Amino acid sequence: MNAGAQAPVICVDGPSGSGKGTVCRLLMQALGWHLLDSGALYRLVALAAARAEVALDDEPTLARLAADLDVQFDATAAGAEKIMLEGEDVTREVRQEHTGEAASRVAALPLVREALLARQRDFQRLPGLVADGRDMGTVVFPEAPLKIFLTASAEERASRRHKQLKEMGFDASLAGLAEEIRVRDERDAGRAVSPLVPAEDAVCVDTTGIPVDGVMARIRELVQARGLD
Length: 229
Ligand code: DC
Description:
Blueprint: E1 9-13, H1 20-31, E2 34-37, H2 38-51, H3 59-68, E3 71-75, E4 81-85, E5 88-89, H4 91-95, H5 97-106, H6 110-121, E6 129-133, H7 136-140, E7 146-151, H8 154-167, H9 174-190, E8 203-206, H10 212-225
2'-deoxycytidine-5'-monophosphate binds near residues 103 and 133.
């Protein structure tokens, strides 16, 4: 058990485009806690696999890549995220849609998930951790005092993702993206290990049509009710 294992964890799980990334970053800043972007770890395994020309169904080799992943999560001077893989800045590549698609494939492999488990738990440090993913509340931090499951309609999730990608300068068609998200969510929810499902004790928050401020107000209420702020 690491020294920070007593630190509280707030789990935020949900499908692509449900607002997890935005909510987790705002919550982390508001509380002054650490952040685990577990999706980025799966995306990095997919990127490392592409670089090493490892097939996305070569489970033992992918699990080794996941176990040995040399990554660093930093911030630029302006506070933007910066993700390094083997010393190289891969921030933009990590966020591309094809990386997300490959990540969803490697994330369905039990040995890869197992290889990333300890690495994810190492992020648990004082004063606390905000954990963003699909199985934070069900598998990685089952003892967490607050588990939130964010959802939003499929249309809204696709249009948020579209906006995000455009802001990053990537070209994407809304219809194509909606279909990609549907396939990815189906795979994430239907896989045999750690599928995307709310934990039994998760609070579901539907963000459809609710501006970020409104979602954050609801989440701050939940945080306060648990005595976590
Ligand atoms: O949240 P994201 O889009 O960055 O996640 C990329 C993929 O990784 C997503 O399709 C599902 C997978 N994933 C997962 O299986 N478990 C997690 N805890 C986080 C992400």
